[in-house]
Predict the structure.
Amino acid sequence: MNRNEATATQVERWATVANIVAPTTLLGALLFYFGYVSSQAEYAYFGLDVGTIGLSTQEYIMRSPQPLLVPLLTLPLAGAGFLLADAAVRRRIAPASIDMADQAKAAKVFKRVSRGSTAAGLAALFAGIVLLFIYSYIRDWPFYGLVTPVALASGAGLAAYSSHLRRTIKIAAHHTRAADTQLSPIDRLSSLPRAATVLIYALIIASIFWATATIAQWSGLGLAQSQAQHLDRLPSVILDTRERLYLRDPGIEETVLRASQGQTFHYRYRHLRLLIQGHDQMFLVPDVWSASDSTLIVPIDGSVRVQFQFQNASP
């Protein structure tokens, strides 16, 4: 093997590795991001910034399937529906599928459909752009983060498909010579240049990303609210401390421990639940939810003593 062949082989190997590593890295980054967004919303409900917990990258990735469940089910179903509809359209206006008269009739019908979908797409796209510019006025609308990207994605998608449908009809019309050669303004908008098509696809991807992040945020908030309703499912904790904590959360019971030789802990707190454990801290909440509750951060060291309480059936 000469030097040029060795160099080419090395380049091919690096290209193969890049083709494998790059998609894997991108997938991992996406899973990490959506896991982070969901966890941030979940623990913000309990007054915590997720950064204070110290979750690892792997833990964020492991938390991502829950918020991604709805998008992972919705997007393939929508894609399958689109492919089936597109295949049906292609069969109806294919040059060899039906006779000339029926083919010309079908072309006119789908031409009207193309115009309608273009108009609907432009309307949805305009609505999404308007929502972007009036964000400061409707920022408190709870559905803003989903309605806006859905409007942008659906509008851009309809515009892109109208362009695709228009080109298909033109090909069929060229073969049958039965279509009208005059183009309306809507038809001209349907025939998008390649650069505009690329930008539209970029807009669709960005809008889907935005909508998915919103769903991940809602998923995290929903998990937090479910936990708040069922705090009795979290591990029960008995906390002993050296100093009084002056906790004001309703339901927490404070007991002064009996003084004895060698005893370094003087106060005991009951009716606490373990919300989550970080690298070197535990985050405790009262076992009865209240809007005025607080989350207690307890270091995992010799300054406190922690007991996990359980009550199970007899073995």
Q: What stands out?
A: The chain is about 60% helix and 10% strand. The two ends are 71 Å apart (CA to CA). The first helix runs from residue 3 to 44.
